[in-house]
Amino acid sequence: MASSSHSHTLLLLLLLSLFHLSLQKKPLSLSFPLTSSPISKSLQSSAQLQTSSESPPFPYTYKSTFRYSMALIISLPIGTPAQSQQMVVDTGSQLSWIQCRRRKAPPSFDPSLSSSFSLLPCTHPICKPRIPDFTLPTTCDQNRLCHYSYFYADGTLAEGNLVREKIALSPSRSTPPLILGCAAASAPDAEGILGINRGRLSFVSQAKIPSFSYCIPRSSRNISNPTGMFYLGHNPNSRTFRYINLLTFPEGQRMPNLDPLAYTVPMSGIRFGRRRLNVSASAFRPDSGGSGQTMIDSGTQYTFLVEAAYQVVKQHVAAAVGPRLKRDYVYQGALDMCFDGNAIEIGRLIGEMAFQFDGAVEISIGRDRILDHVGGGVHCVAIGRSEALGVASNIIGNFHQRNLWVEFDLVRRRVGFGVAECSKAV
Q1: pLDDT at 255 (0 to 100)
Q2: HEC secondary structure over 226-267
Q3: Short-list 176, 210, 200, 206, CA closest to 52
C-alpha cells in the first residue's frame, strides 16, 4: 500500500481495513484471521550477496514461509527473547509497526518482556516535523516520548509510540535495533505491518538488506490460505529471473501525485492474447505532476489502472463477453467488470492477459487467473479504476503477482520476475 503524501487516501483506505475485521473478502483488506500453523524458517550462509557503498552487506540469507489470504502474512520473531508477531508484508509502506499490549495474550507484543526494547524520546531527530521522506505525523506525548497517530475518515484512531527493537532472524542472529511503531490503539487481533518500501526508515533500509523476494501462491477450493515463500538476501532461484530497472526520481523533486518511495516500474502496455491494447505508454509513466506512476504493491490486493488505461481494458472485456457482463454492478466499490455463470468460459472469451514492461519483459496472466470469485457465484476481473481509491497511479496488486517470484534488488535498483509454482517454491 502506498504511503507517500500524494497517496494518503490510498494509505487510509488500506489501513482502515485493519480496524474493521471480517471474514468476508474485501478488495483492499489487509487483516485476516490469524493462523495458528507454525511458520517454518531457515537461515543459511550466503557468499553471493551483492554489496555496495550504498547498501552494506546483509551477511546471510533469511527464508520464511507466509500465509496468503488477500495479503502476505508473515510471522517474525521480535525482541529479546523473541516474541512471534504476525505482520503484513507491504512494499507500499515505510513504517513497520506491531501490536503492543502489556500482559496480554499473543498476538500482542509485550515490551516488558524484551531486554532490547526502548522508547524513542521527543528529542530523537525522527520525532522532528518535516522529515523529508517520512510523512508519519509525530508529536511529543505527556511522557516526553515520540508519539504517532493516524485519524481516519470514520473517526478511527491508530496510534502508539515510536520505539527501537530487534528482529531475531535466528537464535544467534538479530538485526540492530530498528525504529518501529508500537501500536496501542488498533483492532485487537489485527496484524502489524512490515513496511519495505524504498524509504530510509523502512525495514529493508534500516536493516541494510540488499534484496528481498516473495512467491505468492494461488488459492484453491481445497486450500483457502495457501503458503508462499519469502527471502531476505540472495534467492537461489534468481538465475531464472528477468529484470527491469526501477524508475527513480531526484531526491528534491516534488510532484503532488508521485510516491517517490514506491517501487516504480517502466510499464509500457497491456495485451490480451496477441493483441496489444491501444493505450499510450504515457498512461503508465508519471507526468509532470506524478500522475500515471506504475508501482508494484504487495499490500494492495487487486490491480488498479488510471482512467485512460482502464477504459480500454473494459472495452476489450465488454466486446469479448457481450451480454454476460453484469450491468450496474460494482463489487465493494472497486470492481465493475463482473459476471454470473461459468468462470472458465468467461476466462476463455477474455483471453490471456499480460502487463508489458521495457526490455520485452512481461507479467503473463493466464485465463484461469483473470477472474476472482467474490461470492454468490459472481466473478470479477481483478482490475479496478484508480480513481475509486482517490489516486492517480497504476498499482499492480498481489492478485496479479501470484505464481511468480518477485524480487526487489535494492542495490541494482531493479525488479525481477520468475514464473513459479509458488505453493511448491523453495
Answers
A1: 87
A2: CEEEEEECCCCCHHHCEEEECCCCCCCCCCCCCCCCCCECCE
A3: 210
390: alpha, beta or left? (left if phi > 0; alpha if psi -120 to 50): left
Counting Cα atoms < 13 Å in the Cβ hemisphere of 372 gives 25
DSSP code of residue 145: B
Contact 388, 397 (CB under 8 A): no
Q: How many CB atoms sit inside 10 A of residue 85's CB?
A: 26
Q: What is the C-alpha to C-alpha distance for residues 192 and 214, in angstroms, rounded to an integer?
A: 18
The answer to whether 220 touches 403, Cβ cutoff 8 Å, is no
Backbone phi, psi, residue 305, to 5° = -120, 150
Only one residue has cell 489485527, namely 190
Of residues 229, 193, 234, 194, the one with CA closest to residue 210: 234
Cell triple for 309? 488505461
The DSSP code for 330 is -
H/E stretch holding 345 reads helix 343-350
Residue 63 to residue 235: CA distance in whole angstroms:
9
DSSP class of residue 200? T
Q: How far apart are CA 318 and CA 338, in angstroms?
A: 10
Q: Answer for the pair 169, 175: CB distance below 8 angstroms, yes or no.
A: yes
The reported pLDDT for the residue numbered 185 is 59
Question: pLDDT tens digits, residue range 360-403?
Answer: 999 999 988 899 999 889 999 999 999 988 889 999 999 999 99
The residues carrying an active-site annotation are: 90, 297
CA–CA separation, 333 vs 13, rounded Å? 12
* CA–CA separation, 286 and 258 (whole Å): 7
C-alpha cell at 164: 527501537
Instruction: Indicate the DSSP class of residue 177.
Output: P
pLDDT at 267 over 90: yes
pTM confidence score: 0.84
pLDDT digits (tens, 9 = 90+) for 180-193: 999 875 655 567 88
CB 161 within 8 A of CB 59: no
- How many residues in the chain? 426
> What DSSP character marks residue 28?
T
CA distance 236 to 31: 30
SS3 141: coil
